[in-house]
Amino acid sequence: MECKGYQFWTQADKQGYFYIKDVRPGNYSLYATVPGFIGDYKYEHDITIEPASEINLANITFEPPRSGPTLWEIGIPDRSAAEFNIPDPYPSLVNRLFTDNYANKFRQYGLWERYGDYYPDHDLIYTVGTDNYKDDWFYAHVTRSRNGTYEATTWQIVFQLEDVWTGDYTLQLALASATYAELQVRFNNQTDAPHFSTGLIGKDNAIARHGIHGLYWLFSVDVPSYRLQQGYNTIYLTQSRNWGPFAGVMYDYIRLEGPPPE
């Protein structure tokens, strides 16, 4: 979110070594991300760069957020929604520069409106263990257009628990993008007050700009065990802001973790 100062970037090699050269003198913070893991690394100290200096940081270790064992997961933690169901464009809006490259399939105008075609009367329901996120998880959680207005939408994740353990579960909710959205989370009762809400977040406009990711968001939601039950459970994800077609989020990765081992 910080863009007022200078930024210098590099990519570590397979052994984790990296080198950043030609950095202007000043005080800096060091951040890192690791593909396949949620969260951000931040070095615990500021780094002061002086002219003609060289700094060796020795070993630095990233410990990604985790509270307990994985019970289920949706998606790939890569800060992108590319692995989800990206629909075909409307025939009248096809950009033929990208029709032969699946990696750029999202670069088509009007894809967000295909949600209403896929789900004209009800919202997405995803059953863990049965559905496949590549086919059954729409790439963007957007509003639905109906009679000239836009409706907020609620997606459901249905899953089973053989037992409910004592302690707090954790819902790791990583977003690849958000645009003037508010994501509310409820458990097993859609009419309850939200157990968690992001509040109003995001203005990266990745949905409107035919992108597949924008600014990354990670929310670790504590879930007391009394909110869950043995057997079938449902998580309700409501994108409650309905000001227009581009209000929405793109999910990166969702994971439910059990309570920490004793």
From TrEMBL:
Recorded hits in CDD domains, A to Z, give: RGL4_C, RGL4_M
Which keywords does this chain's UniProt record carry? Signal
Q: Name one GO molecular function term.
A: carbohydrate binding
For this protein, the record's Pfam families field holds: CBM-like, fn3_3
Gene3D superfamilies given for it?
Carboxypeptidase-like, regulatory domain, Galactose-binding domain-like
Q: Which InterPro entries match?
A: Carb-bd-like_fold (IPR013784), Galactose-bd-like_sf (IPR008979), Polysacch_Lyase_4 (IPR051850), RG-lyase_II (IPR029413), RG-lyase_III (IPR029411)
Rhamnogalacturonan lyase domain: residues covered: 2-56, 70-256
Know the name of this protein?
Answer: Rhamnogalacturonan endolyase
